[in-house]
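Exercise 7. Predict the structure of NmrA-like domain-containing protein from Penicillium cataractarum.
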Amino acid sequence: MPYNRLAIYGHRGWSSSAIAQALLTSGAPAKLLYKPSSNSNGLTGSFSEIEVDIQDQDALRAALKDVDILISLVGREAIPLQHAFIKAIPHTDVRLFVPSDLAFRCDEQGLKISVNKDKDDVERAAREAGIATTVILPCVFAESGLNTGLLGVDVEKNRIVFAGDAKNQILNVCTRSYVSKAYSNLFAKTPIPTLQNRTIALSEIRTTGAEIATALEKKHGTTPQIFRQSLAEVDRQIEECVSSGRPALGWYCRRRWGAGECVEALGG
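Solution. The predicted structure, encoded as tokens:
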């Protein structure tokens, strides 16, 4: 089975650096694209690299020469910049665009949050332009979701906040290593028609809040502190954050978990 020719943009983030590294050592012919203020330092493997301002359409189209799959791994602030790819792709041989998402599908409430809306806008614009896409959804990363307070889990302080029925509801979790390997396995050799216009959910670990609490107790040798929040309170926090411009993503993630919607948000 022949390799696909890959172009990767976005490799400096916590997750994107590992995913880019996996793709660059997958065996597939690969180009690393990066903005003028960046470089390829820290990455290994046999790949070509191109410094490009993606707002320069002529330069971007030239950089995408001999590319089958364009994989974007940009972070939150750069999500809207992907519209430059959508403008350029119809003038290249790129057959598949993988926009940066790495989360889950959002409902109407979630689309009030800017980063979610920006992702949805990019994916919608690609479809409207007739560009084939593949969207990868791991729900949440274990390392960030369970160690930063995003979901109300504080491993070091041995405490957990259950929003709604999070104690009994499933949380879908993937490690950075698992997601990186999935990208490599999916995009290096899979025939492109098999990937086009698909949303692919990743699932490494499915756990409940009660199971996380048990793991915390085992780790610390004592019962974790457990706090509870109603979904009504979480909804109020989301609305206040959205209206004031404060980060709301953590609250929204807790809400989907507490409402038992994590699996549904992956499309299955």
